[in-house]
Amino acid sequence: MIENTFGMDIMPENEHDRLNALRRYKITGTPSEASFDGIAKLATQIFNAPIALLSLVDAESVYFKANIGMGTTKETNRGQSLCSLAILDKKVTVFEDTLKEDILLTNPNVIGDFGLRFYAGAPLITHDGFMIGSLCVIDKHPRVFTTADRQILEGLARTAMDQIELRSSSIDKIDELEGVNITMATMQQRLLELNDEMELANDELYRTNSQLNKSYDLTVLLNKNLKKSERRFRSFIDKAPIAFAILTGRELVIEVANDMMLKLWHKTEIILGKPLEQALPELQGQPYLGILDDVFTTGQNYIGDTAYARLESMGVLGDHYFDFTYEPLKNDEGETESIIVIANEVTERIKRNEHLEALNYQLEIALKAGELGSYNRDIRTGKMDCSETCKLNFGLTKNDRFDYDVLMQSIVPEHREMVYQKVQDAIQNKTTYHAEYLIRWPDGSLHWINASGLPKYDAEGNATHLIGVVADITKRKNYESQKDDFLGIASHELKTPVTGLKGTIQLLERFKDKTGSDIISRLIDQSAVNIKKIVTLVDDLLNMHRISEGQLHLEKTTFKASKILTSSCHNIISQGNHQVNITGDLDADIFADEQRLEQVLVNFVNNAVKYAPESREINITVEQLQDRIKITVKDQGEGINPAVQPFIFDRYYRANHEGKSYSGLGLGLYISAEIIKKHGGQIGVDSTVGLGSSFWFSIPLPTAEK
């Protein structure tokens, strides 16, 4: 009775005819009658599988041998064996991971102690199309089985079937010959006893001789088929996608070496038939000839992993690395006759690894020199792989736990949302993450951290990791604070004398035409220009100090957009060097601090003149959007490098303009950004190198603001 664990019909439609075919080949009892040690060993070597099976499937049972020639025949219920599935399809049946196959989840070979996780079986197909068994490889670990692997297994199965058919035909003829011999003996006895039946015996002998002649012709044909099968097998070896060779005798004569092995050795077919020591003289002094001799004498296989060897190519010895296997082939008495060599060159992989190790070492030195800590955060789990320097920057030792939760708890509450949002923006927009934030160490002290990183994505585009570096910038922040304090005090102290000096120069301007001296007039004009620059610098310093102290106050009123646009461009228009085009909704109402907003526009326009002097046109556009109003100042200058655009609104930041010198402290855009933020708006820049820049800001409409 068949015990079926697959939940499906495992009986072929022509089961009766298939069983007759199985009996016809006289192998219904056990596969031990057809020994295929060489094919099984080759299968395990080619696929690097621990077990190869040759199975035959009758009405209720499956008879099989594992690693043929190494044990007795086993029998199992047909409904529990995966081989019964292999005879349902003429193609190779493959289960790369049996635990992912619903029909196998109740099979005792899969869920039982044996733990079968991988199966690949090619059916044994007779010349008239019946599948009587299978040749398969199995493993207790999942694995990938490629199209090339399937073709190789099919080729081995065809070779096995060819030998089965040849053996079956030979057995039939041997039986027939034995019958003929019995008949001849009987007839000879009758000739001795019955002279009167001589003529009849002669006729019978004639017929017997005729049968013998036919048997001889058939034997010749079988030998031809056997040679054809051997040629097919040799062709299969030559074209196999692995480096394969057979070394015969203790002299290690190269009997077989396929194209890949010859290429690996840097040799041609001329070395076939020569001892390995003679064919590859460069192996002298290397361990491999000794290892091969040990394999031959002990009968134990040898596996080499990334083994180093020096081989000759074009008369030059080169360094190479290989993964290889030496497998002894034994006769019926267990004596080693030959050694199978299977090899794979991994030189490029080793060189790449060495190069990566060198790069990693250089990176490690660079990180230590820069006091940078590296981290690798798993976005899905929150776990972080951090360097020792990274943990030190957060006041931790190298043995302390440090994951995403610990990181967020160390950040002061007022900075956590900012850090979280910047990380999310980098992940969603696939951009660089950059943030500066304040943390509290376990000892209670406060420190500033500068963090950067890049998200890593899987094949489906899902963010999996955030990888980057962190630095302790507490000293820099303290220096900035001290500098801000100094500049604040200095600007306050300078304000009074500068204001007095400005008034004096304005008074002098009234009398310059009465001096009667062109030199004095020019000096007064130059002084007026310079005092204007000084006033601008002092105002920037005072504004920056107010922002740092949280004392930037707004006095909001409602006014038309055209009012600040005209006033902010008056100075540039009056000079006559640039054409200012103002378009859009000029009658739009704005609810804001008019003086501060004009300060932002003046800064945008002055920057367009300063950094894009060749741009004779400056375009200003007013757009009234759904809930805000947006003003854009566009020039046609050289544009801004995308790498510096994220930092252009930072305090004291000035973009590098090679070969050019510009005045200023780099505070204008920073102050402008703080003014817009104070209004609850947004500020930004859109720029392409060679196509100019567009600086813009947007603030809520009066209805939205109120």
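Next protein, fold it too.
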Amino acid sequence: MDFRVMVLSLFLWLFPFGASAIDQLDELTELVYQYPSKAFSQLALLEKTFAANHINSDINQLRLSVLKCQNLLQLGENEAAINVAQLGDARAKQLKLDQARPYFLICQADANLNNNNIQNALPLLDSAITLARRYQQPQALVDALRLRGQLDTDTDNFSSAIEDLRLAIDIYPDIHTQTQNWIWPPQAYIYAAMGNLLYATHDFPQAMYYTNLGIQSSDAKGKVLHIILRNAARIALDNQEFDYSDQLEIQAKILLPELESPLELAYSYAILASIALDKGRIENAEEYIAIAINTFQKQNQKVAIMRSNRLLAQIRFAQHQDDEALILMNQAIEQGESLNQYSDLKGFYGIMSDYYLEQDDFKQAYTFLLKRYRATELANQEMNNARILQFKARLNQQNIGLTGNDHAPESDSILQELNVDWVYSTLFLIAMLLLGGMIWYLIDKQNKRAPHIEGDEPVETLVQQILSVLNNAKQGNYPLSLLIFNASQIRQVDLPSLQDELQHRLREQDKLIRYSMDEIVIVLPHTSTEGAQKVITQLVACIQPWQGSSKVNIGVAAMQQFDTLESLIKRASINQLGKVKSGENN
């Protein structure tokens, strides 16, 4: 009896400690973004407390790693953040806590974006979004959509960016509906990302509206508020709100001490320098950029040094020190070419072309104009390659068998219902595993025997061809339509034969690709919406025998000038969903 009392007393003592630990982790979530240096100290203290008491759960340990990873990002320690994220992801897999994995993938993606490594960041973000949806993690989904929206904004993929950011804003109120909290971005950052997108599309009043929403958010404090005020000063300036821009700039400067990381301070000074330059305050701009360059050189931030040289060159042009400005611009161009920063090089060549045009040196102006055109082509090619990697990652993920994860909970519930002896339970589980393995082996064998769905061409080649068709349609200003069909009700082994039959009904210039496990995408160049409807009628007749009695619904979308492949597919999917709902209502 005494032993039971001791156990009960211990439990009652441990329970408040566990609840207190969870509360501390929740408080640290906001602190990580707002006051990262303060959060770093508290995280280290909490880590020691967990280790000393030996009562922390695996979930709390993983959550501590997630917070630590994001904290390192906020302090500018990108390489350290990547190491923590990779270890955390491996630990989550080992513990079978897959709901934690999207947070570590987001952290890795964010660090790669900070290092200008878009090719690694895009597939990581796509994987994070897939896992966040699968395991119902709105906190991760909001953050991944925010990051992808920011990336698309930076690469002028505006239609995709606005869809991601609108979805993030809609989902944000639901972030606390999940059973286990991990980490979530400040709402102010979501609004700020939307403001930056609208600013990039030159919709300055709407950009100012969303940025003000960010400023007014309850979580806009410390570093978060400084960053939004800094961006708002730029937007207000271009929106002709000069007095308001000055007020915002002053408020942003007051909060500069909140940035305890030298690298973060340097980035802020560089942005304040660009604002001061546009306001005609040349001396202030020169002072700010000198501080920034000094830090960037100490930290060996090559891309930041390159961009700072470009800004300093513009300051020298404004001071009519053309010779020194040209030296700085040539240095920036050399750095950009060695780092393959084609997006930056477009701007650099443009500055040089405009300068020589003003000097009536048309030969040099034309030379830099050609270089700018070439850099634009290389930048687009680089982004297309990154998108192809993203599509490949999506296809690989959806082709991986998830049989073990899907059936494990079902097996557990069956065993609980049967309430059999543990020996029989073990035998039952072994039998289920053997049966699952045999089924997987037979399906895999059938798939290998079946003709390859995409023919002899690899997936990346087909995606590249489709992107090329889209670009040609835009340049040639001719219509293009995209069809999407969900083949989930057709057996996997029958899909190759069905796709061969569909291919025979299409023209030679039409492109057909297996976009995901259950989705077939068809691109119809030189085809209007009316023509696409006629093609749909032919394809429905072809698909219906394979699908049986259920109705065949094919989504359609007509290309607009600013469309990307992703946005076209999304609109076609929405059209298909509308047809499904309409059929259900009828």
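About the second fold: The mean pLDDT is 81.
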